Amino acid sequence: MKRLSEQAALQGKKAYSLSELFVDSKKMIFRELDLHTVPDPYRRNLHRAFLDKLASLLTMDNMDVSQSDISSLARLTVSQVKMAATRESATAADATTKAHYLDLAQRATLILSGEYPKPASPLIGRMPSFELQMKGCWDNSLEE
Fold this sequence. Notes:
Layout lengths: L1 H10 L6 H12 L1 H5 L5 H19 L3 H4 L3 H20 L5 H19 L16 H5 L10
């Protein structure tokens, strides 16, 4: 994201902007909200994961994020998702979809108020190194 900001500063309107990234991501990830269709379980998980990512952008203690347009655009995107999910929950086709949209709206409210719990750190950061995983994998103790 930082690179997109740099490219926009250097190339102006020719560059793919950070704003375009957020708009395009929201449009593709939450396309069911615009198309008025029922999201399947995988799409619902994608919706929740994207909101988690936006929440992490808003709670990062990182100068690159806090001193750029990233947090502003993340906040705007969360706000837009909240409005769309609230609107669509009123006309949802089934109880699961209605519950999902209400849940998205509630998550967005918590994110915007700063009360959303920080997402857990990624599993990759807690995995042992490749060398440690492979240690003893091909030892000769079985060849006796």
